[in-house]
Amino acid sequence: MNEKTPLRIVVAGGGTAGWMAAAAIARTMGRTVDVTLVESDAIGTVGVGESTIPPMVTFNRLLNISEAEFMRATEATFKLGILFDNWKTPDSRYFHSFGLTGKDHWSAGFQHFWLHGLKNGHTAPYDDYCLELVAALQGRFAHLPDNRLNYAYQLDATRFAGFLRGIATTEGARRTEGRIARVELKPESGDIAALHLESGERIEGDLFLDCTGFRALLIGEALHVGYDDWTHWLPCDAAIAVQTENVAPPKPYTQATAHDSGWQWRVPLQHRTGNGIVYCSRYLSREAALERLLGNLEGKVITEPNNLRFTTGTRRRQWHRNCVAIGLSSGFMEPLEATSIHLIQRAILRLIRMLPQGRISERDIIEFNDQQDQDMVQIRDFLILHYHVTERRDSPFWRHCASMPIPDSLTQKIELFRETGRVFRRNEELFAENSWVQVMMGQGIMPQSYHPIAGKLTEDELNRLLTGLRESVSRTAASLPEHAAYVAQYCAI
User: Fold this and answer.
1) pLDDT > 90 in the chain, percent
2) Of 322, 325, 339, whose CA–CA distance to 213 is shortest?
3) Cα separation values, 90 from 67, 292, 335, Å
């Protein structure tokens, strides 16, 4: 490699991870890179990462992707959050929205003023002060000025990969069909020199991206980078996915319904609904899980069940030598908070910021791995919260989750909120204060105190604040069009 020679990037594997990487790098870097993607039509992809979070909107904008074109191609709907049923207790419900709730003060979040209001006779629930939440439950959506409505997408992952393939190849990336038979290493350094395909073709590169999914052919099998297993905190290890016909207009949110050994998802798209059951195989057999899933569907099943096994955890190094793991090869977080595509996006954008000019810097590798590890740990803790903080004791699975030891980092977050109502976001942490507040209160944690700044307001000032915010949310939500009608109009050619 030198400054005048394009950096040769070889992407091993297609699917969402591979084509997101190829499209983003080719479109961003232009002729400074030479991108080759290797995939085989004979190897299937997981293809069930259909629910996303708001940074996906930013990713599309960075790549100058037309939102309407993207939504048409992927049959996408808008998503304002996730509805959680049966997590705190078997008959409970709460909503984790993507928006802000109320109005924060620089010294304290809105939850402190709401808690002060409760003490002074205000009975409106915390939910009533969040526009995204109210609009979602009313089935309404529209783009608002100043991006006042925070949203993500629910999409067809297979179609998304095809859409990105079109972008990548238009920008000069090349696709090579074939199975990887062998990974050739340089004897002097241990770096990857080339991929050998079953056809006999040899593909050299300077930087290799492992997008081979759970197989991790490069980072795991060839370079022997280990994997940290987190199933002692996140015990679900299996899933079954099916697709069904729509029986009603698609809602602008994903549903996550807990059962006695895990949970079930429902993701409504324009043309169909994605469904799946996530479960712990120690407590539920595959046959029983499939029976439960099929018994809880709405609409005719239109695909064969797709059975998945996984180990929640993280690769100990996601960048090692001249190989970067992206997607499932780098680790796996179960889809409870729809972070799979986000982690792919995060790794790609971080890598683009650290692309080498000439020799790969060991300092870049260290920094990349440290930042990736922080992302994984912070998301891990947020997911554990859903399982551990629960009043459910109705099955061995939930008794295990409630009694299991948890990381000290999560204990601190929980107990700080329980005692003071405070949440602090660290180092560009993905989940904002309001996300933690909504989930912790939804799971049953009510703060024992709140910030004294709330007591600065007179009774009249507090009434005006809470009443005004609540009425503004109600008024705005009621003015929004029905979600399905808006999507149809927005995506019309």
Assistant:
1) 94
2) 325
3) 38, 16, 21
How far lies 163's CA from each of 42, 48, 245, 343, in Å?
20, 16, 23, 19
CB 312: neighbour CB atoms within 10 A? 21
- Give the orientation angle of helix 157-170 with respect to helix 15-29, to 10 degrees: 30
Of the listed ranges 2-6, 100-104, 119-123, 450-454, the least confidently predicted one is 2-6
Task: Specify which residues 93 forms β-bridges with.
Answer: 85
Strand 174-177 and strand 33-39: the pairing is parallel
CA distance 152 to 136: 12
Tell me if 222 sits within 8 A of 308, measured CB to CB.
no
Confidence category of residue 425, pLDDT binned at 50, 70, 90: confident
Per-residue DSSP letter, 249: P
Cα separation, 196 vs 178, whole angstroms? 10
CB contact at 8 A, 131 and 149: yes
What are the start-end ranges of the H helices in 171-221?
none
pLDDT, tens only, 151-196:
999 999 999 999 999 999 999 999 999 999 999 999 999 999 999 9
CA dihedral 487, 490, 492, 493 (to 10 degrees): -150
Asked whether 46 and 308 are in contact (CB, 8 A), the reply is yes
H or E stretch at 37: strand 33-39
User: For residue 199, with 0-12 CB atoms within 10 Å meaning exposed, 13-18 middle and 19 or more buried, which class applies?
Assistant: exposed
